[in-house]
Amino acid sequence: MRARGMEMAGKDCVKVAVRVRPFNKRERDAGSRCIISMTSNNISIQDPRNPQNSRTFTFDYTYWSHSGFSRNKDGLFVSEETGGRYADQASVFLDLGQGILDNALQGYNATLLAYGQTGSGKSYSMVGYGPNKGLIPTLCERLFQSVRSMQDSRQCQVFFSMLEIYNEQVVDLLSKTSRSAGGLRVREDQQRGFYVEGLRRVPCDSAVQVEQLMEQGTRTRTTAATHMNANSSRSHMLIIIQLKQIFSKDCITKQSNIYLVDLAGSERQRSSGSEADRLKEGTAINLSLTTLGNVIRSADVYQIFRHFQCCLWKLCISIVLLLHTNASGAIALADMTLGKKVVHIPYRDSVLTKLLQSALGGNSRTVMIATLSPADICYEESLSTLRYAERAKRIQNKAVVNESPTERLMKELKAENAKLLLRLSRMGQEGRKADDETKELRRLLTHNELQIRAIQTLWEQHLQEALKDWETQYATITQERRMMQMHPYIMNINEDAQLSGVVKLFIQEGEWDIGLADNSPRSLCIRGLGIQEKHAVFSNQQRRVSITPVSGSKAIVNGVPVSKRIELQHLDRLVLGSNGTYLFIGFPSERSVEDWSRYDYDYFQSELAAAEGFHIQSLSTGPHQPDPSLLAVFYDYIKLMPMVTEANQMSEELKKGVEFKLEIKNLAMSDSKGHDLEKDIAVRVTSVESKQVWMWSKAKFVNRKFLMEEVYQQQVVGGEGADRAPLPRDRDPFWDPLEPLHLGSAHLWLQSLAFRIPLEEQVEVVGPEGTEEAILQAQLVPCSPTGLPLGEDDILIDPSELLGKRLDFQLVLDQCCGLRWVKEARNRGVQIGFQVFDCPQPLYTPAVWHNVNLLLDHRVQFTALRTSQELFSYLQSNALVLELWGLQEGCSELVSCMDGVKMTQEDSIIIDKISPSEHSTAETRGSDLSSSLRTLHQDLEQLRNANAALTKENSALREQLNSARNGVENNRGRQERRGSLRPSCDAEFAKALKVFYHSMTSVRGQLQRLRRHRPSEEADLLGLRLFVDEHTYLLKDFSEQLEQCVTTLKQDVAVIVRRKREKSGIWS
Ligand SMILES: Nc1ncnc2c1ncn2[C@@H]1O[C@H](COP(=O)(O)OP(=O)(O)O)[C@@H](O)[C@H]1O
Ligand SMILES: [Mg+2]
C-alpha cells in the first residue's frame, strides 16, 4: 500500500516508511501468526496475547511485502497479480530512492536510514539480495543514468565511500591499507560539520563500479567480522555518495552528500539483560544506536517545544492585546518562560549521531525506512520499531541547496581574472608602458588560470586513478568468477545473510594447507576463533576432494567432529575452529539448479544441535508441530550454541580457566503446581581448576559475551601495543562473585494436609536437566498448636471441614542423601529453601558443609488461624517446593528473612493471614463439597493424561529404539519430558481419602521404580530392547494399580456425597 505522489520537497519533516517482510523459516516452523495489517497509510499491530489490543500508526509510506508475491524466472519477487498490494523492490525505490536522488540532484543533502530488528529486512531494502536489488544499487544506477543524460548542461563528479561503525570505531571498508588501531577519527570542521578524517573517497563514473566497490566493502566487513570475532548485526554500515555538479556556464556548483545507512539491529537498543548483571553492558556496543534514539527523542521534544513556544507566543500576544499593555512586556514574558530554555540534542555523544547530525534536524532531506517482522513472536520488537518510527517522523530539517567553497573559489578566481584582463586591456588602450605592473598582472592571471584548470583536472586525474584501481579490482573479481566455474571451493556462511558467500576459497588440484598461515603459494588463509596456523589440509586429486584436520584442530563435517581424512561431497557443511562455518561447493559438474540458500547459518547450527541430541523433531511428541514455546527454546539454543563455543575459545586463549556449557532448564522445577513443558536456557560456568560453578541466565551470558569480545579484541586482536594487563576482577567479564546455586527441587504435595493426614516422603531432588541431585526425606505432620502430632481420629473425611478452622502442621526435613553436588567436590555445602503459601520470603535450613549424606532434623511449624478458601485450594492442588541450594567455598550462606513474618505464641509461623471469616456455614458446605468433587474430577483427568503421556512416551521410546542405528542413545530430551511429567503424576498421588491414601502408597512405590528405571549407559541394542519390554511391563502394572485406586476413589466419593446429601435432607 503506497501513498504515491507525496512530494519530498516542501516541508522538510523526516519522511518515514514502514515495510513488512515475509515470514522466515523460523517463524514458519513456529506456526507464527501475522499480527501486522495495513490499510492505506495506516499500519496496525495486534498484541498476540490480547487480540483486542491493537495499535494503529500512520506513516508517509507503508509497504506490504509479506504476502501476495511469487518469484519469477529471473528470481525477482513480484506481485502475484497486477495491481496487487505486494510492494516489490522497484516500487519501494520509486517512492523513496527516486526522492533521495531528485533531492541530491537539486543540490540538497539527502539521507536514507534503515531501522529495525536484526533479520527484519533492513539490508534487503537497502542493499538487496541477488536479483532483488535494493535501494542503494538502484539509486546508483539511476544516478549515473541522470549524470549521463545531463552531460551537456553540467559536469558531475561522484565520490563513493563506505564505512562501518562498530563499537564506536569507524572502519573504512574501502581502505587499501590495513586497519588502523582504534579506527578512523571523526573531526569537526566549521564548514563541513563532522567528517571522518582520512576516509577513502573513490571517484566513480558507473553503477558497475559502485557495485563492485560495495562488494569489496562487504568483503572487508566479512573478514573483519571473522577476524575480530564481531557480530555484524551490531554494526552500522554507512555509504556516503558525494555528488558535485558543476554548471560551468552559470558558474554554479551544487554539492550534495547522500548518506545511506543500514543501522545496527534495533533489538540491541533495549538493554539485553544487563540490568540483571553486575557488569553493565559494554557502553560502546549500544552507544551509537542509543544516542540516535536520544537524538530523535530530543529532536522530537524540540519540535514539540517549538510548537508549544509558538502557541505560547500567540497566547501572550492575545493577552497583551487584551490587556493593552505594551508588547515588550509580552516578549519578556515569553523569554522568561521559554525563550531561555535550551533543548540539548546530544549529537556529540556518539560517532553515528555526529555523522548524521545534518540528517536529523539539520541540512538534509531525510527518509527512514523501518522494517518489521510480521510474526507474533516479534510483537515487542515490532511495536518498539513502530514507536521509534513514529517519533522520527516528527523531526524537522532545514535543507538548503549547497554551494561549495570550490565553487566560490572558482567564481572568485574567474571574477578576479576578468578584472585583471580588463585592467590589462585598459593599460594597453591607454598605451601606458607600465612593464612591471603588466608583468605582475600577467603572472597573477596565469596563476589563476592554472588554479582553475588544476581544480578541473584534479577530478579527471582522480577518476583516472580510481578507474585504474578499479580495473585491477575488476580483474580479480572476473578471475574469481572464472575460478568458480572451474574448481570446487568453500564459501563462508555468516549469521548475517548479507555477508554469506562473500569469501570463497578455491581448492584447485593438489594439496592445500588451510589455516592462519599465509606463507606459501599452496596455503589458503582463514582467520577466526580457534583456527590454528595450519588447521587442515585439503586435497583435490582425481576429481575427489577431501579434508584432513591437523591433529588438535577442530573440524566438523555435517555436524560430526572429524579427526581423520574425510572425503567431501557437494554441499557438505564444514565448521572450522570455534565457529568458522563454510559450505563446500563441489565440481561444476556436480552442481545442479538446487537452491543453496537453505544451507544458511541456522541450518548449520541446527545440525550441530542435532548432533548433541537436541533437534526439532525431539520437541514434538506426536505428528503435530512442536509447541511454539519449545521451538523458541530450540532457537535460543542454536543461537547461543556458537556463542558458547566462542566464549570457550576466548576463555582458553585468554587463559581464563573457565568453561561454559549450555543447559536447558526445566522451569517446572520451581513451579509449585509442577507445570509441564516450560523450559529455559541457562549457561553453566565452571572454573576448571577450583570447580567453582556459576549459573548465568541467557541475558546475562549474551551481555557477558559482548564484554568478552571487547576484552578479546583489546588483548588478542589488538596486535602490537595492545593493552594486555589483566583486568581487575570487578571488571572481568569472565568472573563473578560466588553465589549459592539452585541445584534442583523436590515437590512435596500438600494435599494430605487438607485431610489432616501426615505425609512421610522420600522425594527425589531433580536438577534442571532432570538429573537426580539428592534424595530428601521429609514429613508434613498435622499437629496441635503446641506441636503434638494429631492422631488417626483427627483425619477428615471431608476436607472442606477444614474451612474456617485452625490448622497447624510441621514441616520436618529429616535427611538428605546422595548429594551429587558434594560428591563432586567435598569443599561444598548445601541448604534447603522453601516457601509456604503466603510467607513473604523463603526460609532456609542452616548450611551443612562437606557431607554427602546429611542429617538435617529441621522442623518448622506453620499455623493457619482460620483456613481460608485460598489456602484450602492451595493445599489441594499445590506442592511445597523444596529447593536445594549449593554452597561453595567463599560464597555467603542463605539466610531466612523474618521481616513481615508473624508468629503465634508457640513460635509457629502464621500463614493465611488474610483469612475471610465466613466459611463454615451450612450453605457453603454443600457447594464446597461439590467444588472439591470437581477438583477431584479434574485431578482424575490429569492423572489419566499423565498416564496416557507415559504410555505415549513408552511407545516413542520403542520407536526410537527401532530406529536407533548406532546403538548410541542420547536420552536427554526424554529425560526432560520424564522429569517434567513427574510433578503432575505426583500431583495426583495423594487423593486424600484414607483408603485411597494407603493404596496410593504402593502406586507411588511402583512409580518410584519406574522413575529410577533407566537403561544402563552401556546398554546395546538388545539391552535397550529388554529395557523397553521391562518398562512396558512396569507401566502396565502401574496403570492397572492406578485405575484400581481411581475406581475405588470414585466409589468412595460417591458414597460420601450421597451420605452428605441424605444428612442435609436433600433426598429425603
Ligand atoms: N521484503 C522481503 N522480501 C523477501 N525476503 C526478505 C524481505 N526482507 C527480508 N528478507 C529476507 O530476510 C532475511 C533477513 O533480511 P536482512 O535484510 O538481511 O535483515 P537485516 O538486515 O534487517 O538483519 C534475508 O534472508 C532476506 O532475504
Ligand atoms: Mg543487515
Please sum up the structure shown.
By secondary structure, the chain is α+β, with helices and mostly antiparallel strands.
Which of globular, elongated, flat, extended, rod-shaped describes the shape?
Answer: elongated
- Count of DSSP-assigned helices: 22
Structural class: alpha+beta
Mean pLDDT reading: 80
Bound molecules: adenosine-5'-diphosphate, magnesium ion
For the biggest sheet, the summary is: 9 strands, mixed
State the oligomer: single chain
Distance from first to last alpha carbon: 73 Å
Relative helix content: 25-40%
Uncertain parts:
1-10, 315-341, 915-926, 964-993
Gyration radius over CA: 37 Å
Number of strands: 42
Approximately how much beta-strand content do the residues carry? 15-25%
Describe it.
- Strand 13 (186-189) and strand 14 form a beta hairpin.
- The chain has 1068 residues and is α+β, with helices and mostly antiparallel strands.
- The longest helix has 50 residues, at 435-484.
- Strands 1, 5, 8, 11, 12, 15, 16, 17 and 18 form a 9-stranded mixed β-sheet that branches. Strands 20-19-29-28-25-26 form a 6-stranded antiparallel β-sheet, with helices on one face.
- It has 22 helices and 42 strands.
- The protein is 39% helix and 22% strand.
- It binds adenosine-5'-diphosphate (ADP) and magnesium ion (MG).
- Adenosine-5'-diphosphate is lined by residues 21-22, 24, 65, 77, 116, 118-124, 129, 233, 265, 371, 497-498.
- Residues 21-22, 24, 65, 77, 116, 118-124, 129, 233, 265, 371, 497-498 line the site of adenosine-5'-diphosphate.
